Amino acid sequence: MLRALALLAHRMHSRKRLAAHLLRRRFSQPVRSCAMLAILIAQPGHAVTGPSDAAPQLSLDLVDLCTISGLAVATLLISTLIVLNLRKKSIISNTSKALEETEARYRLLFEHSPVALLEEDLSTVKTFLDQLQAQGETDLLRYFADNPESLARCAAMVRIIDANRTALSLYGAAAPSSLGQLTSVLPTDQLLQFKKELLGLIRDGRSEIVLENRTLSGEPLTVERRAVVAAGFEQSWRKVFVTIIDITEQVRLRNENKTFEKKLQQTQKLEAIGSLAGGIAHDFNNILAPIMGRAELMLIENADNPQLREHCRGIVDAAKRARDLVKQILTFSRQVDQEITPVSLTDIIQEVIGLVRPTLPATIEIEYDLADQCPRVMADATQLHQVIMNLVTNAFHAMEDRGGRLCIHLKTVTLGRDESAELSIGPGIYLQLRIEDTGHGIDKATMGKIFEPYFSTKPRGKGTGLGLAVVLGILRGYGGEIRVESEIGRGTAFILYFPVVELAAARQPAAFDPQQPLPQGTEHILLVDDEKSIADVTTGMLERLGYKVTVRISSYDALEAFRSLADRIDLLIADLTMPQMTGLQLYREIKKIRPDIKVIICTGFSEQLDDGSAHSMGIEGFLNKPVVLSDLARCVRSVLDN
SS3 sequence, 147-168? Predict the structure, then answer.
């Protein structure tokens, strides 16, 4: 190239012609500049006028040398610039390739991330916040509290630019453009949490909050939202990366665990109440026993005093009601294993009515129509008691403000194929229990939720703790069903269906005629009770019936008395719960002395012993306190006569 330029310069006698030639050629700007510089360097000290001049040969050689030197320098500069230009292009090309590879990797990670990712534009929000600060508003927390509409406007300014596949799936969107703005997935009641995010971005450039979201179809979500301003966008917030972690299921399970913990605590409380009720029942029945016994003795001893007898009958009736009330409280509070047996629904309903009637205000009336001869149902009596109590309590709460009428109807119905298909149960004979109130009624929106677990419209502190979902589960477990009818302002009716069970005819025990005289005797009875008042009144009853009675208020004293009178004692009547030695322990010791001795055990309350278990242990008789004179007379005579 140097040689070509030299020859070119030699041929061009005019510097102007050479310059014009270079300008006409397609050289780059740096090359043309270097060539012009070389021409200037090659300019001789005198003008070259052409071959016709008489200049010496030495001057011509000097001109050629200068021209060649200038061209050499220009060539060197041109070569340097060409090399630098090629290196620059190589660097730019390599950098572009690296950026493209980085962008491809980023897109790959963004799209296929298992975590929901969003790219948001908060530049409009940042401009608004900067304007507030320029106006002297430094306390944004107080500003947004005073101006909630500004906070809502900020939320509407947030644009969702991009979203990966996981985010689109989470929110039910087909494309990022479907999300558009943050408000499309942010409920209005979550603006307080959005305010925390803004304050975190201002303070640290990042935030982490837990809030409620919703899908585009309106399904609720609980998410953990983490936002961070992208590097280089700290001043504009034009690019903010957001990760969304769906914790809806975790929150649901956590809430369920809390609910289960509360139910466990409630169950433990009920168990404690049941144990406490048992102790109270024992003591209360021991108090009732002498009251009832003394009143019955006064009835017998004052046959010619009608006024006194009337008072005594009132005392006996009141004591019996108190005894039945204690029994109902024990039935309701005691936690026992489920025992499926043929149950009389009529008896259970009457027990519930007897239990709730004293607690209802005078503004609420109870009407009930119970068939006398209803077939039985296979169920657990305690569960049925709780189910009916729950529905009756619901009716009471619906009427407690204005009063009303509670109606309970029980009848036998036969369901055909069509009727049973509507109820999702099989055709057959059912007991239909209708519990109806005249309260405020249930609206349609609430009607669709009343059987959902944990749903309740009652304020804290009301209700039995047994939800309608559990009621429905119990009924369906027995093969039954429940239906609800309600009208706002008119009241609500719950209709329950129980499949009946047909039992073989059983031999009924002989009924005792209350007009007949009580059975009496002359046998010798050993009576043991640690309560002296009960021992005294029971002794009076037995002596009134003609028996000879030996009384002891200590188990050890009774055992010593039996050792001395073993051949003369015909019957042992012992209290179950006594200090030092229980009635069962005394029974076993006495049986060792005389195996054929007959025994009756009395108790105010016991979960360990009842009539059935007593007979299985070889105990001939069992009486619940407080003991009525007629029951005592018949039980003693029955045991003595085998």
Answer: CHHHHHHHHHHCEEEEECHHHH
CA–CA distance, 166 with 116 (Å, rounded to integer): 5
Residues 172-206 have pLDDT tens digits of: 999 988 898 899 999 989 999 999 999 999 999 99
In angstroms, the CA 605 to CA 275 distance is: 11
d(CA 43, CA 63): 7
C-alpha angle with apex 281: 333 to 573, nearest 5 degrees?
130
DSSP secondary structure letters along 236-301:
T---EEEEEEE-HHHHHHHHHHHHHHHHHHHHHHHHHHHHHHHHHHHHHHHHHHHHHHHHHHHHHH
**d(C-alpha 527, C-alpha 555), whole Å:** 10
- pLDDT of the residue at 353: 87
Question: Alpha-carbon distance 627 to 604, whole Å?
Answer: 9
Phi, psi of 407 (to 5 degrees): -115, 130
Tokens of 201: 């971005």
* Predicted confidence (pLDDT) per residue in 64-79, tens digit: 677 777 778 888 888 8
CB burial of 14-41 (b: ≥16 within 10 Å; e: otherwise) equals ebeebbeebeeeeeeeebbebbbebbee
Contact 326/284 with Cβ under 8 angstroms? yes
**How confident is the model at residue 328, as a pLDDT?**
61
Nearest to 151 by CA among 114, 188, 116: 188
> What is the H or E stretch that residue 35 is in?
helix 29-41
DSSP string, 482-513: EEEEEETTTEEEEEEEEEEE-----PPPPPPP
CA dist 25 and 14 (Å) reads 17
Contacts of 275-283 with C-beta under 8 Å, sequence gap 24+, read 277/329, 277/330, 277/333, 277/334, 278/330, 278/334, 278/605, 278/606, 278/607, 279/605, 280/326, 281/326, 281/327, 281/329, 281/330, 281/604, 281/605, 282/577, 282/603, 282/604, 282/605, 282/606, 283/604
Write the CB contacts of 112 (distance below 8 Å, at least 6 apart in sequence).
164, 165
Determine the Cα–Cα distance for residues 259 and 264; give it in Å rounded to an integer: 9
Instruction: Compute φ and ψ for 138, nearest 5 degrees.
Output: -100, -30
Distance spanning both ends of the chain, measured CA to CA? 142
> Which pLDDT score is estimated for 407?
93
The answer to whether the beta carbons of residues 334 and 278 sit under 8 Å apart is yes
Question: Per-residue pLDDT tens for 499-556?
Answer: 998 664 444 444 445 557 888 999 999 999 988 989 999 999 999 999 999 999 999 9
- Taking Cα atoms as reference points, which of 198, 194, 188 lies closest to residue 140? 198
Residue owning tokens 């039985």: 376
Residue 621 and residue 601 in contact, taking contact as beta carbons nearer than 8 Å: yes
